[in-house]
Specification:
This protein is of the alpha/beta class. It has one domain: Rossmann fold. 40% of the residues lie in helices and 15% in strands. The chain contains 6 helices and 7 strands; from the N terminus they run E-H-E-H-E-H-E-H-E-H-E-H-E. The chain has helices spanning 30-41, 53-65, 80-94, 117-145, 169-189, 220-231; strands spanning 21-25, 45-50, 69-74, 99-102, 148-153, 194-201, 242-245. A 7-stranded parallel sheet has the order 3-2-1-4-5-6-7, with helices on both faces. Strand 2 (45-50), helix 2 (53-65) and strand 3 (69-74) form a beta-alpha-beta unit. The protein starts with 20 loop residues before the first strand and ends in a 7-residue tail after the last strand.
């Protein structure tokens, strides 16, 4: 993984999140873990969640070992009551959310005739419903705090014209929805100093794709760098944008 320490970043981004409260969903591994650690290195107090506390606790301990501030929570982002509790707990513990990274996601693969409606709906409940629920709670807190930044994780699978692969119909549809939701919420954020953007990476070297026949060319740290930029004041004029991160999915 590329070095994501402050010393490897542009000078303008060092300490870019100092004093900010950031919440990273799916923060126990992969992109979420890299993002949470990077945010802490750049001055944020980081709340992070995962469906089970074990992975989130591991990331929080890593942040603490580096001298940062991190706290783990358990949350299924597809569960409305659980999301409400998460944001209430973060507000109690930290005072509110300034930055939200909607990273929690579910990957499902199957040819159309083999995909059940229940599976299709579950993918959307996590990948789209979870973004919606977390954004709704975050908007309420960000309005109280005078603004904020939301970064949603989509994918090249949700970008028009990017190569698609057989068996990804549910996943692709959900990631297109994230892009649409990002653009709509960017409009709603106007007037409240709330920016909403998305990152759309190609295949990333994470556990989510470890079983597939894709050949990831992006490291989690590279995606985290893009998320940091969109979350920070350095992108203060940017909202409603879906930042595409390309990688070669084919073996050389």
């Amino acid at each position: 993984m590329p070095d994501s320490s402050p010393s490897s970043m542009p000078a303008s981004l060092v300490g870019a999140l100092k004093g900010k409260i950031a919440l990273v969903t799916g923060g126990g591994r992969g992109i979420g873990r890299a993002t949470a650690v990077l945010f802490a290195e750049h001055g944020a107090k980081v709340a992070l969640c995962s469906r089970t506390t074990g992975e989130a606790d591991s990331t929080a301990k890593l942040i603490l070992s580096k001298g940062g501030v991190g706290r783990a929570y358990e949350c299924d982002v597809a569960d409305e009551a659980a999301v409400r509790r998460l944001f209430a707990d973060v507000k109690r513990d930290f005072g509110g959310v300034d930055v939200l990274v909607n990273n929690a996601g579910l990957f499902s693969r199957g040819m159309l005739e083999d995909v059940t409606l229940a599976e299709f709906n579950r993918v959307h409940a996590v990948n789209v419903g979870g973004v919606f629920l977390c954004c709704r709670e975050a908007f309420a807190q960000m309005k109280e705090r005078g603004g904020g930044s939301v970064v949603n994780l989509s994918s090249l699978s949700g970008v028009k014209g990017a190569k698609k692969f057989p068996g990804f119909s549910a996943y692709c549809a959900s990631k297109f929805s994230v892009v649409g939701l990002t653009e709509a919420l960017a409009e709603e954020g106007k007037g409240h100093n709330i920016r909403v953007n998305a990152v759309c990476p190609g295949a990333v070297d994470t556990d989510m794709l470890s079983w597939s026949d894709l050949y990831p060319r992006l490291a989690p740290g590279q995606v985290a760098d893009a998320i940091l930029f969109l979350a920070s004041p350095q992108s203060s004029g940017v909202s409603g944008v879906s930042l595409e991160l390309y990688s070669d999915l084919l073996a050389p």
